[in-house]
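Intended use. Records like the one below are meant for learning the mapping from a protein sequence to its folded structure. Do not use them to infer anything beyond what is encoded.
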Amino acid sequence: MSVEHLRARKGAFRIALIPPEVLEALSDGRLETVNLNEFLALDTPRLARRVAADIGLDPAHERLADTLAMLDAFKPMQRHTHIARALYDLAAEHPERDAVAHRLASHPSDAARGWATHWVCISGLALPQQLAAVRRFAADPHFGVREFAWMAVRDAAIAAIDEAIGRLVPWTADADENIRRFATELTRPRGVWCAPIPVLQREPWRALPLLEPLRADASRYVQNSVANWLNDASKGQGPWVRELAARWLRESDTPATRYIVRRALRSLP
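Structure written out for the chain above:
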């Protein structure tokens, strides 16, 4: 059944208002979510089994079945991590593992592609290889996959923050706004739904190689990320953020920089 007529929909503002046709298509992996309510409303066991079949894995395998049976014991976001791990373990035994991984990474469901981002950190790759592997997801057209992307490599970045900053500097000059935003979103001192980066809370100036190139970025999407980064830093290093903001305004008095500075200082008295 075609879902083309559903793609241009506006997402329901309450889960209870999601049309059954939409929820069915989402849980069958034939449609992407358009807001958080749809993502939270997914029938994740049903989606996991459908995706497993789509990418060439056994949807009835005991490893997956055991994971799905205990999903209710976890918070919503944690459930996706466990599903990703189960699929990863099944793929490890598959003779065409790379093909399975590619099918997952290019699946029509944004949730499924989100699971693919988890494979990056599960793989145990070194930071440079993790960044290379996650780049396609950082540029994904879907906002949810892009969020999963930076969360997937957050721990590796925290463990080697100076190396991560150095390797992300070229990303700040990329033509794709999603790639530029990834550089700041990954390294936010406090972050969202993830562990903080204590060293950047104490010494936010260590990330200036990422922040400086973006201080007048033309993209509002990037501007918001830079501003949020500095707002995070202002919680512990307010005077430094004020000084940086003042310097930026002296050196780059543009609408973009003024917007970033205004949002960056919003939590300071």
